[in-house]
C-alpha cells in the first residue's frame, strides 16, 4: 500500500476564487508504514498551456507540426519537512494558506479545430502536496486539487456612449448622383456586467435604389491564440440566443432602430494571459440583394465585473 491523501478546501461562496483571495484548507494523509522523505512540500500552482497542431500536408505520412507555449501565473511553495526525515506510520494533518495574486486570467479550457489547426488551451489552478523520496528508483508522489478562479476585467473601452459607423457606395445607373447606404450605431456603454444587457441605437439611411433585405445583429465570441514562433490563430463563434432580425428597408428611407441584447450569464471577456484572450463584438449585418456585398459592422464590448468591484455570485464557465 502507498500513501493515501485527501485535500480539503475551505471554499468561498459558490466555490469560485477571485484574484487576491486566500486559498486555505487541510491536507490529510495516511502512511501505512514508516517512510523516509527528502522533502514534503505543499504548493499553490497556476499555469497556462497552449498547443497548436497544424494538420499534415501529406495525407500519407499523417505527420503533424505541434507547437506549444506555457506560462506560469502563480507558483508558491511551503516546505513541510526538509532534509531526509523518517516519518512513522500514521495519519497526519497539514494546514495550508496561500494568497492568489491580484492579476490573473480566469480558469479556462478550449479544445476545438480551427481551419487547419487543432487547438488545445487551458488555464488551471490547483493546490498540491508533493512527497519526495530518496533513491534512484523511487519517484515523487503528487496529490492535487483543482480550484476554479474567475477574474474581473480591466476596461480598455469606454463606459460612455460611443458612435460607430459604416457607409457603402452603390452604383446608380443613368444618374450622376452617388448612391449610399449609411449605418450609424451608438452604444450606450461598452462595459457590460455578467448577465447584463447591450443597448445600441441605430440610424440606417438607405439613400440608394437598392432595398435592404434585412438587418441582423448577434453577439460574437472571438478567441485569439498565440503560441511562440507561430502567427496568431483566431476563432469566431456566434453566441447562441443573442440574435435579432429586422425586416426590409426600402429605398429612400431613414430608419431609426434600437436593440437590447441580453448577454448569457456564462459569457465573459478573458484577459491577463499571453497565450489566450477572449473578446466579444456585437456584429451587425445589413443584407443586400445580389450582386451587392453585405455591410458588416463590428462593435466591441467587454463583458465582466470590473476589477476591485467583483461580486461574489459569479457563475462558473
UniProtKB/TrEMBL annotation:
One of its GO terms (cellular component) is cytoplasm. Keywords: Sensory transduction. One of its GO terms (biological process) is protein transport. It comes from the Eukaryota. Residues 177-308 form the Arrestin C-terminal-like domain. Gene3D superfamilies: 2.60.40.640. Belongs to the arrestin family. PANTHER family: ARRESTIN DOMAIN CONTAINING PROTEIN, FI21816P1. This is Arrestin C-terminal-like domain-containing protein. It comes from Arctia plantaginis (Wood tiger moth).
